[in-house]
C-alpha cells in the first residue's frame, strides 16, 4: 500500500506559529471541528497535535505530550501492571464441589476462572495506554479512534453485559469486620486483626483464598463461595493498584448468592478498566490497575502483527470458550519505545476490524453494545462512546459528537434501561461500511486537528507538524491483508524503494496481496 501525505499545519493551516516555553502553539482561528463551537475561546495547540484543544482538554497532563519531546515517566518507561494470572492458576481448582459450582455458574462470573493470562506483556500494554484519552474513552491511533467495547468484553470474557449497575454504601473498618463475620464466617477477633493489618476497609486476596479452602473442607458452602467469588473478582475485573487487596464493600455484592447474577458484570469490567486507563495515561502515573488480560487479549484480536503471543487454538476450532482463552503469554522482545514508532506506522489494513464474527455462535451481537451514554459502577462513572469507533461495528466512521459530560445530572440507570434511542442516534447518522475501515470525507482532517495520533516526531530536527495520511482500501480478505502488512513492514524496515531491483519480487508480491 502506498501512503500519500498532506502536511497539516497548526493554527490557520498556512502559518507555523512559534512554540511557547510549555510546548504550546497559540492558535488564533478555528476551522471545522465537531468538538467545540467556542471559537472565541482561542484554544492553544501543541506540536504534533492537538491543534484544536477543545476535545482533549487534559492533554497538558497526558503522557503523550511529554513523549513527543523525549521525556519519559521515569527510568522505567513501561508501567507497573497488576496481573494475577499465575496465582489464579494455583488458586482456582480444576473442579468446584457441586454445591459451589451451582452458585458460581449462576453468578455470571464462572468464565473468569480460566481467562487470565499467566503473565502480562507490560511493554505492549504500556504502548497502548499511552494512546488512551479519558475524554473520549478511546485509543487514538494514526487512522482514528478505537476502543474496548461491551461486545469485546462479552466475546473475550463471556461476562453478561445486560443487568443493573451498583450503588455502594460506605464501608468503614468496623463494618468491614462485621461483613467478614456475617458473610465469610470468620471470628470477630480474626476479622478485626485482618482488617487492621490491611490499614483500611480491605481484605487480602490470599486471606480470602485461605477462607475458601477452610470452609470448603468444612462443607460450609455459602461462606466458601463468597470468599471464592470475592477472591476471583479481586484478582480479575476489580484488580487495583495495591496488587494484593480487594475492597471490603464488594462483599456486599455476594450477600445473596442467588441474586448476584443481576449485575452487568461486563460493564463492571469496562468501567474499572476505563478508569485505570484514564489514570495511567497521565504523565505522573506509573501503575495500571483493572484487568490487564482484557486489554492485552483485545490487542491480540485486533492487531495481529503487533506484539508476541501464543495461540492455544484457532477460532475455527473453538468449542464455545471465551476468546481470551485463545491466547497465551509469550515473552516479547520489543520495549515500549520500540513499539511506539511501530504503532505510529499502523494503517487501517493492519487491523482486524471485526474479529468476533466467527464467535457469534456462542455470543450473538447485542445491540445494547451500541448504547451511547455513561456507564457507572459505584462512584466511578465513565463515558461509553461507540460513535467514536463505528468501524468496529461494521459502520462507516463519521465525525462524532462531542463527548458526554458524565457529571451532568442525567439518570444513568434510566438511560441504560432505555438504551434503544441512543442506538438509533448512533447508527442513524452512518451506513454499513463497504470496506472494513471506511470513513466519511473530512474525518481524518478533523481527527488530525483535535488529536495527537502519533507519539514520535517524524524527524527530531524537522518542524513538528504531522502529515495527514491518505489510505487506500487495501485487501478485503483478512489473510491477504495480513500478508500485505507483513511485507510492507519489512520493506519499511529496510528502507526499500520500488525502483530497486533487489526488492522487485517483494513489491510484486505486495501488489498481488493488495488486489485480493
TrEMBL record:
Family matches, as PANTHER family: PROTEIN MAIN-LIKE 2, PROTEIN MAINTENANCE OF MERISTEMS-LIKE
Organism: Pisum sativum
Name this protein carries in UniProt: Aminotransferase-like plant mobile domain-containing protein
Any Gene Ontology biological process: meristem maintenance
InterPro entries named among the record's database cross-references: AminoTfrase-like_pln_mobile, MAIN-like
Xref: Pfam families: PMD (PF10536)
Domain Aminotransferase-like plant mobile: 108-447
